[in-house]
Amino acid sequence: MTSPGATIQRDSEGRLQHLITLEGLTRDEITGLLDLAEFYVRPPGELPARDQSLAGRTVANLFFEPSTRTRVSFEIAARRLGADVVNLDMQTSSRAKGETVLDTIYTLQAMHADILVMRDAEPGLPAFVAQHVAPHVCILNAGEAHLSHPTQGLLDALTVRQVKGDFSDLRILIAGDIAHSRVARSAWQVFTTLGAREVRIAAPDDLMPAADEFPGASRYTSLDEAIEGVDVVMTLRIQRERMKRALFPDERTYHHEFGITAARMRKAKPDAIVMHPGPMNRDVEISSEVADGPQSVIQRQVTNGVAVRMAVLATMVRNVQARRRL
Amino acid sequence: MTSPGATIQRDSEGRLQHLITLEGLTRDEITGLLDLAEFYVRPPGELPARDQSLAGRTVANLFFEPSTRTRVSFEIAARRLGADVVNLDMQTSSRAKGETVLDTIYTLQAMHADILVMRDAEPGLPAFVAQHVAPHVCILNAGEAHLSHPTQGLLDALTVRQVKGDFSDLRILIAGDIAHSRVARSAWQVFTTLGAREVRIAAPDDLMPAADEFPGASRYTSLDEAIEGVDVVMTLRIQRERMKRALFPDERTYHHEFGITAARMRKAKPDAIVMHPGPMNRDVEISSEVADGPQSVIQRQVTNGVAVRMAVLATMVRNVQARRRL
Amino acid sequence: MTSPGATIQRDSEGRLQHLITLEGLTRDEITGLLDLAEFYVRPPGELPARDQSLAGRTVANLFFEPSTRTRVSFEIAARRLGADVVNLDMQTSSRAKGETVLDTIYTLQAMHADILVMRDAEPGLPAFVAQHVAPHVCILNAGEAHLSHPTQGLLDALTVRQVKGDFSDLRILIAGDIAHSRVARSAWQVFTTLGAREVRIAAPDDLMPAADEFPGASRYTSLDEAIEGVDVVMTLRIQRERMKRALFPDERTYHHEFGITAARMRKAKPDAIVMHPGPMNRDVEISSEVADGPQSVIQRQVTNGVAVRMAVLATMVRNVQARRRL
Question: Which of C316, C246, C274 has the alpha carbon at shortest distance from C57?
Fold first, then answer.
């Protein structure tokens, strides 16, 4: 089954108008986005890359679910491409006054805001909105329920590619609260499309996704078994109420069973890397020793996040311009 | 009786230093602002107009009453003219610490913020502040109690003019909670100054303004009678507590008596347009069918809102420069 | 005893990498900062100074303790130097999600935010963070507990210097809640370093700092005695709960004993100036007559605040570049 977003996000020529999900993106499309992102990466301490790809454009951030980290990453990416950026606090805005989301979108569109970055705790909003906006307006999904977080998936892929190169030999483990994780879904999607040899998912029984999700992934309920011989360990943020559901009474017990520790890392390949989407619960899903250790690429993920968002923004604007020339 | 703002907003040469009210603006002044705004309008899908009229200037948004929509419109307008923009959340700022509003204004003025955009639920603040700032500082009223919302009036006039041209043949209806509406007052002011043939106001008895307000306007308590043969239908946002006061027990009853519906629109002229200042209560003061139908110019109002604010900002700066050259 | 910040804020060459405290800054260093700030000062009504010293840089404002005034001052300063600025609301950000402050800092650093402006109600954070960031990242302390507010101290010094010139003849009084005031500590530090003839502190007994603080300062519990013959009167904001602790039952009584009034000002030198860091409690620690009178330089302090912050930002970036060239 194809999600509606996968179809809706393309224009009549098949070009991406929106980025709602990584589902349906070809290996070439993903590689193209990662190549452009790589072009925007700079080492720490150097000035960040800048250009004027978005000069004259207005990017609006609509975060119905708050996220300082992702909002700032998109805001910085857009500014470094020369865009104007406006932030709307959707908790206190006219949604409260009873305005529909679609009317808010139409209002922003009428103000010539042409790129709308949205995050929502409920599923469906980005695809719904994308069906109603004008052909020159792009919707970028910055996190949708448990379903999709496409720029996170791309930054994860870029990070793995930088360290490991080709995906065809890689065994990649995603561990933690898979059932509720948009990060896991988008990462699985992109790793699969890029031809990873194996994607493993490891979760406590109650946090394991339905059987028809993550097709092709190997499933483990023991982290110790799952981590054996992998090249990449990606762990996920766990929330206290989810731990309880998975029968871990406290953070200490969760750490004992599902935390990424130095001892566990010794079961992975010696050159394995460790990833986390942030913000971390230190010494819950990951030990500080590992998070700050030599195998960690967690800060590199953050740097790549800005570069990936720059690449996505620039690509969407290029596609709009191509549509207009037809 | 002239409101204090009408006098205070002019400098000793009679030029506008502030924009507090549309009262007292001549037809030529309003036409000049609309002409400049028209220059800034771009069709949907084109890049918005930009110039550097406000280069080096700092615009501060002080919203004592929150409004994402109006704040974003001013913010976008100012950025497209090259200004720096700072947003102050006046709900959590030093007003809470006991600082007087005037001290906040003096502080911003001392930081070389030269254009202060303010909205307040109480009457009187813009005129009070305008009396105390330096000659190079402009106060723009972005909504004052039930009294004045000058840039809204101007965008409404621009929208009517774009579709209908000359005002001298136009019958214009403003319908809804007139008593509490700054939008109605500023619209009535500008339509009257531009020479509309007739301005009608329609409101339930309890939401009708005092007899000495809206001089020259025809008054109706029946929307069905008021809408007969008009060229322009402007409806207003209604709040639940005001409905109750006007003896409408619920939204459905209000809609039945005072909602703009397709059936009612058939009593207006066939080419009548429908306007709403937003945010809309769909199927309360306006049916979705009308709001999204071919007679609606609601999104055009939003586009014009940015253009009008650009025109006002650019004009205020030009006037400051003229004062300085003397 | 030297505070840790005084050492930590310098790089291995002894250049300032961070600005955490004014402690340990030489007279030449302070004079250099004030000279550069003076270069950035413009009279009211003129366009503010601008340059591109921070072009390509990203400044992040992290205010764990809210302060619209100081945040806006830093934001305006950074924009006028060409920086991108992002504001993080640390009350609602991922600190709430359990992320450590250090992880937030590492995240911003990984996004190439290279200047982090932080304010916190607790002591220790700026120095702690400064020990962990990369060599190209600057921490600017925008207010730390009762301890330090270095840009405030510098703007106070600039204001005194503009009016009075050399410090060696000056008697300067700091009056009010000295014990809890970072403003008082930073001002005392800078006035002492610049060679003021005498710094007096006046506070009610319960608001007097410990005996080993403010070495060299003359201590007074009577404002009337303290103000005799001084050139500069700096009063401090008082909080109601602190008044109570100092046995003043209400604002009126505090004003009677510790308020700066016109009558008291007649005991100071005839050309004495009056300063307040804002926001003011009018007619509590200072009478409106004095605050708005000819001896007041309070608005000038605000103008100087932006200029000083521009000077500090530009200097920090210059020092980063010098480190890189080695």
Answer: C316
Model pLDDT, residue C94: 46
Pair B193, B22: CB distance under 8 Å: yes
Residue with tokens 């429908």: B274
Residue type, position C185, single letter: R
CB pair distance less than 8 Å for B279 and A99? yes
Average pLDDT, chain A: 95
Strand order across the A115-120 sheet = A84-89, A58-63, A115-120, A138-144
Which pLDDT value is given to residue B94?
45
Query: Measured between beta carbons, which residues in chain B are less than 8 angstroms from residue A110?
Result: 44, 299-300, 302-303
pLDDT at B326: 60
Q: What share of chain A in percent tops pLDDT 70?
A: 97
CB contact under 8 A, A108 and B72: yes
Q: What percent of chain B has pLDDT over 90?
A: 89
Which residue out of A53, A75, A105, A111 would a mutagenesis test of the B interface target, given it has the greatest number of B Cβ atoms within 10 Å?
A: A111
Q: Which CATH number does C4-149+303-325 carry?
A: 3.40.50.1370
Name the residue with higher pLDDT: C151 or B4. C151
Extents of the domains making up chain A: 4-148+302-325, 150-297
Q: Do C279 and B94 touch (CB under 8 A)?
A: yes
Contact status, residue B23 vs residue B187, Cβ threshold 8 Å = no
* Beta carbons within 8 Å of B320's beta carbon, 6+ residues apart: B17, B114, B135, B136, B138
Q: What six digits make up the tokens of C299?
A: 């608005």
Taken in order A246, A250, A251, A254, the sign of the CA dihedral is negative
Chain B / chain C CB contacts < 8 angstroms: 73
Could you say which of B67, B73, B281 has the minimum Cβ distance to residue A111? B73
Chain A residues with CB inside 8 Å of B279's CB? 94, 97-99, 103-104, 107
At residue C77, the pLDDT reads 98
Please tell me the distance from the alpha carbon of residue B44 to that of residue C108, in angstroms, as a whole number: 36
Q: What is the pLDDT of residues B72-111, one digit of tens each?
A: 999 999 999 999 999 997 876 545 566 799 999 999 999 9
Chain B partners within 8 Å of A94 (Cβ): 67-69, 278-279
Please, is C321 exposed, middle or buried when counting C-beta atoms within 10 Å of its C-beta (0-12, 13-18, 19+)? Answer: exposed
Taking 60 as the threshold, does the pLDDT of residue A96 lie above it? Answer: no
Cβ atoms of A143 and A181 within 8 Å: the answer is no
Residues B298-321: tens digit of each pLDDT: 999 999 999 999 999 999 999 999
From the number of C-beta atoms within 10 Å of its C-beta (0-12, 13-18, 19+), residue B271 rates as exposed
Domain pair C4-149+303-325 / C150-297, same fold: yes
Contact A87, A75 (CB under 8 A): yes
What pLDDT shows up at residue B144? 97
The more confident residue out of C276 and C95 is C276
b (16+ CB within 10 A) / e for A266-289: ebbbeebbbbbbbbbbbbbbbbee
Domain A4-148+302-325: CATH architecture, name and number where available: 3-Layer(aba) Sandwich (3.40)
Residues contacting residue A6 through CB under 8 Å, at least 6 positions apart: A20, A21, A23, A24
Would you list the DSSP string of B204-219?
Answer: -GGGPPPTTSSTT-EE
Residues present in chain B in total? 326
Residue B256 DSSP symbol: H
Give the pLDDT band of residue C19 (cuts 50, 70, 90): very high
Residues near C91 by beta carbon (within 8 Å), at least 6 away in sequence? C64, C66
Instruction: From residue B50, give the alpha-carbon distance in Å to each of A99, B80, B300, C79, C108.
Output: 29, 5, 19, 19, 31
pLDDT confidence of residue A214: 98
Calculate the average pLDDT of chain C: 95
Q: Which CATH architecture has domain B150-297?
A: 3-Layer(aba) Sandwich (3.40)
